[in-house]
C-alpha cells in the first residue's frame, strides 16, 4: 500500500552541507515534532527525516526557511518510487523529493 503525499511522515532534505551530521538534523527538525529516524549518507548532499506523525512533517514543510549549518536546505515530502527491476536498493533511496 502506497502512502499518499499528504499522509507521509518522511521528508527529503536536499542541499545538506558537507559535514552535517544526524545530530544537527535532529536538533533542527525536533522543533516541528518527534523525529523517529534520520538517514544520512556521508558524501551525499541529501538526507531523509522520518517523523512520528505526518502532521509533524507537514508542519516542517509549511515552514519555507530551513537553514542548517549555515546553508539553506530544501525539504519536501518524500515520495516512494517504483522498484528498479528487482535490484535490492536502500529503502530510503527510493524516496525522491516532491517540493511544494
TrEMBL record:
Record-level Gene Ontology MF annotations: RNA binding
SUPFAM superfamilies given in the database record: RNA-binding domain, RBD
Ribonucleoprotein among keywords: no
InterPro entries: Nucleotide-bd_a/b_plait_sf, RBD_domain_sf, RRM_dom, SRSF
Record-linked Pfam families: RRM_1
Kinase as UniProt keyword: no
Keywords carried by this UniProt record: mRNA processing, mRNA splicing, RNA-binding
RRM domain sequence ranges: 9-80
One of the GO biological process terms: RNA splicing
PANTHER family the UniProt entry points to: SERINE/ARGININE RICH SPLICING FACTOR
Protein name as it appears in the record: RRM domain-containing protein
Source organism of the structure: Oryza punctata
